[in-house]
Every structure is written in structure tokens, then in C-alpha cells.
Amino acid sequence: MKNIFNPLHLQEILNRIDKLSPDSKSKWGKMDVAQMLAHCSAFQDIAMGQSHPARGWLGIFIGNLVKPMFYNDKPLAQNMSTIPTILIVEEKEFETEKEKLKGKIITFQNNGPEKCTTHPHPFFGKLTPEQWGKGIYKHLDHHLKQFGVGE
């Protein structure tokens, strides 16, 4: 599984983000491209320990059992539910969100595994830095594919 802490995987993701345009269309889901970028940026905040959404009862009950789906090699399901606090419904400006996300991804990678949050993921619970690195890559990959920007 690719890991955002790997400089080659980081560069691949940044190059794919640069292929997006304000006119990029979603293959599934309700978010437009700017909302998706804002959503991914908000997810970065969780991984960086800057946001701490509460754990829901379902995550507390089954999150640890299904945790590998966050960082294994199997693609995430289309239209899967998201953390309510990072579901973006308001209009966003594409270029602003694109640059904000790229900056957060670079900062996360530069900070390295040792600066990764120790706060539990709101659904999956406690994750190691390696699991966060793989999960961040997988989440970004999922949304880039959603907008037609495969590897």
C-alpha cells in the first residue's frame, strides 16, 4: 500500500491534484470538485491533530474491527458515509481549496510520522502513524479517482 510519507507517493498525489480543474466532474457522490478538496483538507486537519471530531457510537462499536479498510490495498467503496463534521455542503472556491490542500499534504509529509496525531480517528479509533500515512494516501486516491484523476 502506498504511503503519503513516501516522497514519491506524495509527489504522485500532488501531480494528480494539479490535473484537476474547476470543471472536473464527479463520477459519484454529491460534492463538486472544490467541495471535495475542502473535504480532503478537513480530513488532513484530523490527521494532523488540528481537529478532533467526536467518536460516534457505531465507530466505538465496530471501528476497530473494520479499521484495516482504512489502510489496506482494497479501494474504498464509492458513496461510503463520511465523518459528519467534514461533509462539505457549502460552496467553495476551487483554486483556494486546491492550494490549501496541497499545503496541508506537504506539511503533513514534512512533519513526518512522529508529528502524526495520537488522537483516535472518529470512526476507526487509534491508528499508528504508518496507518495514518497509508490511510491519507488511500483517502486522497479515492477522491482523485472520484473526479477522474487516476494514477
From TrEMBL:
It comes from the Bacteria. This is DUF1569 domain-containing protein.
